[in-house]
Amino acid sequence: MKTLKDVALYAGVSVATVSRVISGNYPVKETTRKRVLEAIGTLDYHPNGVARSLKNAKTYTLGVLVPDIANPYFVQLVRAVEASVEKLGYHLLVASSDEKASKESELIRVFLEKRLDGMIIAPVSVTPATDWPQLIVNALPIVLVDRILEGIMIDSVREESRQSSKELVTHLLGYGHRAIGIVNGRTSTTALERESGYREALQEAGIIPPEDFMVRGDYDHKTGYLAGKRFLSHKEQAPTAVFCTNNLIALGFLQAVHELGYRVPEDISIVSFGDPFEATFQSPKMTIVVQNPAEVGRYAAFMLLEKLDGKPGKNVEVILPTVIRLGDSVRAPREPAQMYSN
Amino acid sequence: MKTLKDVALYAGVSVATVSRVISGNYPVKETTRKRVLEAIGTLDYHPNGVARSLKNAKTYTLGVLVPDIANPYFVQLVRAVEASVEKLGYHLLVASSDEKASKESELIRVFLEKRLDGMIIAPVSVTPATDWPQLIVNALPIVLVDRILEGIMIDSVREESRQSSKELVTHLLGYGHRAIGIVNGRTSTTALERESGYREALQEAGIIPPEDFMVRGDYDHKTGYLAGKRFLSHKEQAPTAVFCTNNLIALGFLQAVHELGYRVPEDISIVSFGDPFEATFQSPKMTIVVQNPAEVGRYAAFMLLEKLDGKPGKNVEVILPTVIRLGDSVRAPREPAQMYSN
DNA sequence: CAGATAAAAGTAAACGTTTTCTGTATTTAA
DNA sequence: TTAAATACAGAAAACGTTTACTTTTATCTG
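Predict the joint structure of the above. Result:
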């Protein structure tokens, strides 16, 4: 690949002049500018961004670290971030932590070494790994999305989760359900919040759910599928309604229900978090807390860009409101509610 | 951020020694190694990857350029690429061209300037933009995915498309359909191949489809939706079956059908390209050509890594086979087939 | 047309690494 | 105990930019 020096030689000027033509920040005589531009064209010169980044201490690249890049929720989020930052010339290094703290640490290290200008992270766990405090010290611009960390104040954007979970479960209670299960993630704040909303709703109804109604697994298809199989294989002791805390879990659960020959909502009612469009042609149409990952992404991008711009930044914690969209995945339990209250 | 110099100063050695400790490629006395490692730890030193890349002419970053990063097809593809290259220490810069040649050019330029080690691209158009030839000359390792370019030989991986399109349409013909529409993309090779398969099947049946049965738009939801509205708003002249050439188009078309109060396959039969899992709970279950983007991604990654390894490379053109999965989105047309043959 | 001033272009240092080339301890052999 | 060999460690150049500083060239004024 050609360098400034090659161009300079060809155009018969110094490298400084070529650099100035390219940057456009300095006066260059029109005739020489022409000559340089021509040289650049014929030599097919492309500036070396690496050298430039070294000199300028700026890479124009942002790191995005999500648990699963294939989860539609994060796909939407990432796309919104990309769309928000592209006009300012930033590009994205996207990576998946697979919900593993070790991979998260490793990738943060990579981001650091690559000298990315900032990062957007959906942390794996509530309790920050050892690397996190360093990060803060290093003052690298960070915005957390979807989840937060306990004990460390970092700018974050997420969607309301506890209250809406409570409402979902209350909705089920309103239909007469008493045996209500939950299929949840494990380590993230969202998982805790959603479980907390679930518990609150039940508590206010005087219900204490049995331990085996509460599944803690991963935010993935498999967890939902296995939970569905487990719940429904002993139908008599199964919950009459289930709260799936995430879109993938809901999908997996649904598949299990179908495979076992049961139907929603005739045999079991389901509510979940999800994307209204994704579910458009699903049968049945699910009653969901409508999530808006794109909005989360836009906010996160905005906040990160502000920081990059040198704005002071006062550790904002943005919580976006959510709404519930009713579908037809809920109806009253067929049998009289078994008594799990005490 | 700390530098080698800081560490060297702190440990009382030269920068060269610190560098050698880090790389591990040179002999360093155990006691000094310890001292250096300690310095690195207490100073929280992270090597500057930018400087390293400049020196080594290697960024360990690959560019991935797809038309739409939110399309599940490309999401799967990208994820497979990521999974394939991560163990070798490569990371991904992902960007969307939005099916715009201008954006594609721009992003290729960015990739070039960032000195990425290689790129994987799903080109927007069959006819290469002016930048493409340069790319080849620059000998930057490239692998095309999903689509190819006319007139330039570049390694590529894609799925068989023409023959399977033909089979899909033949399947429709077998059910007695004669008025068969197609909703397609515009510029890519896949669009051409799918249309070509469609035409062949019809031709062999002695049918020449009217121009307005052939919609050419984008590979997106909207194109499918609009086509659906258009076809079905004049039901009497509408096709009795439609071939949607892509998952998003199919989804959009389906939505239009639903909104207009029609049903599949009672009122109209549909076949398409798609992902068998995505469609699991769709009603109806679509008859599709099963695509396997992950496999495409794995192949592309493998081929790119080979090139990066300095393997000669002989311009391979990989075409992965596809299979058809029958669903229940097709049945015989209700009214006697109108005659479009001649 | 000389001298002052403004404009344009050149020189060289710096960014933070890696690595070749040297130099100095330390070990080994005689 | 000394010469040769080996093992470590340092100095400095190089990667390709940007930019402060300096020098050259062009322009202006009287």
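The first strand of chain A starts at residue 61 and ends at 66.
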